[in-house]
Design a protein that fits this description.
Component of the Golgi-associated retrograde protein (GARP) complex. Component of the endosome-associated retrograde protein (EARP) complex. Its main location: Golgi. Keywords: Coiled coil, Endosome, Golgi apparatus, Lipid transport, Protein transport, Transport. This protein is mostly helical. The chain folds into 4 domains: 126 residues, no CATH class; 175 residues; 165 residues, no CATH class; 127 residues, no CATH class. The protein is built from 25 helices and no strands. α8 packs parallel to α10, α13 packs parallel to α16 and α17 packs antiparallel against α18. The longest helix is centred in the first third of the chain and has 111 residues. It is flat. The N terminus is likely disordered.
């Protein structure tokens, strides 16, 4: 057992020595243990899975470097019983076998690697021997080459210096030859028109001739060249002044003259003067197109011609000027800017004159396309002519045209609204002239509302073209802010709504002015139209405008509530005026019927007067007319005897009691006193009270005005007995029919009571007719 615990089996690696197995056994075990730890990547404290706590000098530590088998065995024999010793032996044998197997595997694997490394080293030694031989041969060849190079350099040294000198002499002779041939070359170039080549020759020789002009020969060449150069300058100026060639050739002439040393200031003036002439020709051609004799081209064609002709020429002039006269600095830039401002102003004036001819047109698409091209073409010279501010001027023109178009569309909406009103007037008058029934008020209202709304949408679509994404000027601050908010929303839409309200209110003038000739049905229709605008249309139109024109301007705008309040006030005024007009019509009939009759000598009444029947008929017609546009409204609860009053108002004991004191001459109390006492206890009737937006309120106002007029006319007349009885019959007839139209039937009772009472007060012989007779006459009538 001790021998087995002393170490592993007899396996050994290639590097181990077979001699002295007993002496080398601990060393071999330590090496094997270290190799295992290295292979498995274990640290000193991780080997065997044990903690690093035990003392490394402990002789009984199996994994320690100072393990002593004898001490370990003695300790086991002393401390462990026999069974535990047997178990320890079995476990130790198992561990030794496992370690033996691992050791053999590790050794065999490393052995293969060592063999492979040995072969590799052997091959490297052979390869390096061949490489050393080749390097030796290369060094020998380089030495030979160096020796030959040195010998060649030494041999050619004298010849190289002579060749260099000869080459210098040759170059100098060629320059001299060029100088002596320069006059003839210049003359030939001038004769052939090769002005650029002549200027290049002159430029090459100028410095040399200037430097050696003190030598006679060079002085003669310089004099000849100056004469030829003067002739060249004269021909270049002549060619430039003729102007037969294009702008590039003109710029080339100026460039050659500058290269020949001509004054830049003078050439600049001549260049701009010549460019002015060509551009003025373009402007004259455009101005002729605006003349009255030839038919003017459409605005798109006009802007295309101006852009390709004038603006294109101006861009070429600016580019050539900056290329030729860039050395003049800010003064030259300002001169070019003044030149562009002057001619650009004339061009803008022509464009505005042509655009003014389009203000009456209805097609915005062609105009916007023309403005877009006009603006795009003037953005091209922007960097070249920044000081002239042509782009800003073009943008201002586009903005002015946009404002004018907004005004044009606003005027168009106003004209369309007036046209709708004219159509309504004609539709209302046509049935009366032809004797047939025309369209109803509801149909006319629907037609007017739809026509106005369609015109508004068409105007919004037309002006929306100015803000389209593909338009070059749509991203300008004006079209992204002020145009949308103050121009379209406030100027066009809000302006038209307010104009419509003002036009409608103008029909509310007093009689004898504009309102005197206004059909009452038109007033009623306009009132309903404004009320519909207040309830829904205004909010819809402004919402549509805000959605189409995304307003990015913070300027204050008119709230929807303000416009709705204005429209409601207009509707109220129109409806009130309608009540007054219709009440005036009925009042005129009643007034004439009272004033034209002799009430003192009238006959005993046998029927209801025709005017009272006409009043009931007209009131019924008004009720039908108002019912087409307005709701019924709310009436107060009728009294239980309403049906009886319908047939016999004055037959009830209440009515007999009411009129008995007034109509009985032998009454013990004064009738005037009784009438005044009765007025004290009756509610005051406001004839011109505010009218609400329903049929009952409208009819109540008309009937109050009519009956109040009747009352006032009766107070101005004197009645006989039969005259009083006729008034009694007429009032009973009105009572039979008018109570159903008003909000409160008591109002009709009170007013008619006052009419009969006033007639009785103005009658010397106030004898009323029996109620039964009155009922019979009214039923028969």
């Amino acid at each position: 057992m001790a021998a087995e615990a002393a170490g592993p089996g007899p396996a050994f690696g290639p590097g181990d020595s077979p001699e002295g197995p007993d002496a080398d056994a601990p060393e071999r075990r330590r090496k094997a243990h270290g190799m295992l730890k290295l292979y498995y990547g274990l640290s000193e404290g991780e080997s065997g899975g044990r903690p690093s706590g035990p003392d490394p000098l402990d002789p009984i530590d199996l994994n320690g470097a100072h393990f002593d088998p004898e001490v370990y065995l003695d300790k086991l024999r002393r401390e462990c019983p026999l069974a535990q010793l047997m178990d320890s032996e079995t476990d130790m044998v198992r561990q030794i076998r496992a370690l033996d197997s691992d050791m053999q595997t590790l050794v065999y694997e490393n052995y293969n690697k060592f063999i492979s490394a040995t072969d590799t080293i052997r091959k490297m030694k052979n390869d390096f021997r061949k490489m050393e031989d080749e390097m030796d041969r290369l060094a020998t060849n380089m030495a030979v080459i160096t020796d030959f190079s040195a010998r060649i350099s030494a041999t050619l040294q004298d010849r190289h210096e002579r060749i260099t000198k000869l080459a210098g002499v040759h170059a100098l002779l060629r320059k001299l030859q060029f100088l002596f041939e320069l006059p003839s070359r210049l003359t030939k170039c001038v004769d052939l028109g090769a002005y650029g080549q002549a200027v290049r020759y002159q430029g090459r020789a100028r410095a040399v001739l200037q430097q050696y002009q003190h030598l006679p020969s060079f002085r003669a060449i310089q004099d000849d060249c100056q004469v030829i150069t003067a002739r060249l300058v004269q021909q270049l100026r002549q060619r430039f002044r003729e102007g037969g060639s294009g702008a590039p050739e003109q710029a080339e002439c100026i460039e050659l003259l500058l290269a020949l040393g001509e004054p830049a200031e003078e050439l600049c003036e001549e260049f701009l003067a010549h460019a002015r002439g060509r551009l003025e020709e373009e402007l004259s051609a455009l101005e002729k197109e605006l003349g009255p004799s030839p038919p003017a081209p459409d605005v798109l064609e006009f802007t295309d011609r101006g852009g390709s002709g004038f603006v294109g020429g101006l861009c070429q002039v600016a580019a050539a000027y900056q290329e030729l006269f860039a050395a003049q600095g800010p003064a030259g830039v300002e001169k070019l800017a003044a030149f562009a401002r002057e001619l650009g102003g004339r061009y803008f004036e022509l464009v505005e004159r042509r655009l003014a001819q389009e203000q009456g047109g209805s097609d915005n698409s062609l105009l916007v396309r023309a403005l877009d091209r006009f603006h795009r073409r003037l953005r091209a010279p922007g960097p070249l002519l920044a000081a002239a501010r042509l782009t800003e001027s073009a943008t201002e023109i586009v903005e002015r045209v946009a404002r004018e178009r907004l005004g044009h569309h606003l005027q168009g909406l106003r004209v369309a609204f007036l046209g709708c009103l004219t159509d309504v007037r004609q539709a209302l008058a046509a049935p009366r002239l032809a004797g047939k029934e025309g369209p109803s008020l509801a149909e006319l209202l629907a037609n007017v509302a739809s026509s106005i709304l369609s015109h508004i949408k068409a105007s919004l679509a037309a002006v929306h073209l100015f803000t389209a994404k593909e338009v070059s000027f749509s991203n300008k601050p004006y079209f992204r802010g002020e145009f949308c908010s103050q121009g379209v929303r406030e100027g066009l839409i809000v302006g038209f709504i307010r104009s419509m309200c003002q036009t409608a209110q103008s029909f509310c003038d007093s009689a004898g002015e504009k309102g005197g000739a206004t059909p009452p049905a038109l007033l009623l229709l306009l009132s309903r139209l404004c009320l519909d605008y207040e309830t829904a249309t205004i909010s819809y139109i402004l919402t549509l405008t805000d959605e189409q024109f995304l307003v990015q301007d913070q300027s204050p705008v008119t709230p929807v509530s303000t416009l709705c309040a204005e429209a409601r006030e207009t509707a109220r005024r129109l409806l009130t005026h309608y009540v007054k007009v219709q009440g005036l019509v009925i009042s005129q009939m009643l007034r004439k019927s009272v004033e034209t009759r002799d009430w003192l000598s009238t006959l005993e009444p046998r029927n209801v007067r025709a005017v009272m029947k006409r009043v009931v008929e007209d009131t019924t017609a008004i009720d039908v007319q108002v019912g087409l546009l307005y709701e019924e409204g709310v009436r107060k609860a009728q009294s239980s005897d309403s049906s009886k009053r319908t047939f016999s108002v004055y037959s009830s004991s209440r009515q007999q009691g009411r009129y008995a004191p007034s109509y009985t001459p032998s009454a013990p109390m004064d009738t005037n006193l009784l009438s005044n006492i009765q007025k004290l206890f009756s509610e005051r009737i406001d004839v011109f009270s505010p009218v609400e937006f329903n049929k009952v309120s409208v009819l109540t106002g008309i009937i109050k005005i009519s009956l109040k007029t009747l009352l006032e006319c009766v107070r101005l007349r004197t009645f006989g007995r039969f005259g009083l009885q006729q008034v009694q019959v007429d009032c009973h007839f009105l009572q039979l029919y008018l109570w159903r139209f008003v909000a409160e039937e008591e109002l009709v009772h009170v007013l008619l009571d006052e009419v009969v009472a006033s007639a009785a007060l103005r009658c010397p012989d106030p004898v009323p007719m029996e109620p039964s007779v009155v009922e019979v006459i009214c039923e028969r009538g």
